Amino acid sequence: MAVTDEQQQRHRRLTAWQRSERVLARGSADRTLRERLATLTADAGTVHDLDGWTDVYGDGVVAEVERRTADLLGMEAAAFFPTGTMAQQVALRCWAGRTGNPVVALHPLAHPEAHEEGALGSVGGLRTVHPTSAPRLPTAEEVRDLPEPFGTLMLELPLRDAGFVLPTWEELEAVVAAALERDAVVHLDGARLWECTPHFGRGLPEIAGLADSVYVSFYKSLDGMSGAVLAGPESLVEEARTWRHRYGGQVFQQYPAALSALLGLERELPRLPSYVAHAKVVAAALAEGFASSGVPWSRVCPEPPHTHQFQVWLPYGTRVLDEASVRQAEETGVTLFRRWSAGPAGPPGMSSTEVTVAAPGLEWTAEDVRTAVAEFVARLE
């Protein structure tokens, strides 16, 4: 099979990112197979007994992930899924059967609407309505004033495609109360729920406790390989296990993903608050750097960030920005930005990128960020 230009560009990007001495975060997909396997082999024994038998259809280490996650979220039970897409489709399908209403109220930028090829309707037989299209979570008034009944309100915390934005704690409580007034259940898309605790000033059990069910991911913020958990009442989780089997998610063995999930819970979860705090430093320095660089317009969104992830917007095309980003990594050993996209909601001529601040980013000072911005801008053509 011939190597395409996109494959060549991807190899170029991955090589540049891997060789960079300074990065704000290192994604799990940035590393080679050898590196990932070596890390898992070296560290897995610190979180699970490796002399035990491998999992078979969800027992053993997979069941341990379920128990650990249910405890962390303060939920009765949890079920491990190979993907969050499957976990949420199953959850919403189960709630539709229990409420007798197949209508799901959610944001048009939420993952099921923006990234799942219409699966809620075509696979689950569900229908969606949108309380708001503004780039934020819906308000209590918008939920209360929806003109038709809905069985489930789904809230993505944080709302990634709007800039990883969150409501205030009081706003979140009011939205949940408005849904309950409508006799609806509340499901949290908590793919990135782990890093929401500093913004809300609440622990995971209190946040998750507002909802009837919640899904969390292990690879987005916890550096896991893959996998997700759906947590909620024991009766719902048992039903979800049946639908998981029907959807093809009853995987024979999942110990690599499960072990990496346990490592993420043990090592990355306690560090997320420090990432969130430092993301505010990085975001402010980025804004300062672009303001003094001669770029005609730039925006950090939100400012300050609500989590350890946020967006940066610049008035250039994606090809120009992608090339400047990879050249900076190749020529200076510093990766400031990764991929850029035009984005469906942005004005013409604007591009955005997502910035994540993790363990490597803690070493960056504000001056380091401003210097990197200047080096990046110098490569814009």
UniProtKB/TrEMBL annotation:
Protein name, entry field: Threonine aldolase
Keywords: Pyridoxal phosphate
Keyword Lipoprotein tagged: no
Pfam family membership, one: Beta_elim_lyase
Domain of life where this protein originates: Bacteria
Residue intervals of the Aromatic amino acid beta-eliminating lyase/threonine aldolase domain: 56-287
Family: Belongs to the threonine aldolase family.
Cofactor: pyridoxal 5'-phosphate
